[in-house]
Amino acid sequence: MTEEDPNAGQDLPVLDDGALQDLTEEAGEEVAQKFMEEYLVMLPVRAAKIFKGLTRGDTDTTLEAIISLRASSGMAGAQRLEAYCRSLESALKHGHNPDMTAVKAVLFANIRQVVREASRRGHLPPKSHGPSGP
Fold it and tell me: What local confidence, expressed as pLDDT, does residue 126 receive?
């Protein structure tokens, strides 16, 4: 298949805590929480890089942004988003130029699901990023 599959990964969980549990076991709870917060904050930035690359017709930049989002999504346990990125990556590598409107719709739908699920599970960063403690 040379076109991206907008339904890629729909049978997968939006957010699988196993990946975050592995990171917690390897690096500690604070590191895992910080990673998840940073991942969630960077979602729109990574999506914007994908759109910028697609708009410019810059396949290398687009692929780099998609791979970055795919890898970080895998580490965060965002399996549906990771699967969609893998599908998009494959389409680009096979010379398909995906429809920007469709990519935006599917990517943002996946991102909204991840943020909603992360919020439900208490993974969102605090509203204030000011100094904490005494």
Answer: 66
Rounded (to 5) percent helix, strand, coil in the chain: 70, 0, 30
**What is the crossing angle of helices 59-76 and 79-93, to 10°?**
160
What is the identity of the amino acid at 47? A
Q: Which among 130, 103, 113 is positioned nearest to 3, based on CA atoms?
A: 103
Q: Are 41 and 29 in contact (CB under 8 A)?
A: no
Q: In the chain, how many domains are there?
A: 1
Cβ-based neighbour number of residue 66 at 10 Å: 29
Nearest-angstrom CA–CA distance, 65 and 60: 9
82: CATH:
1.20.120
Contact by Cβ (8 Å): 20, 77: yes
Domain enclosing residue 89, as ranges: 17-120
Give residue-wise pLDDT tens across range 79-120. Answer: 999 999 999 999 999 999 899 999 999 999 999 999 999 999
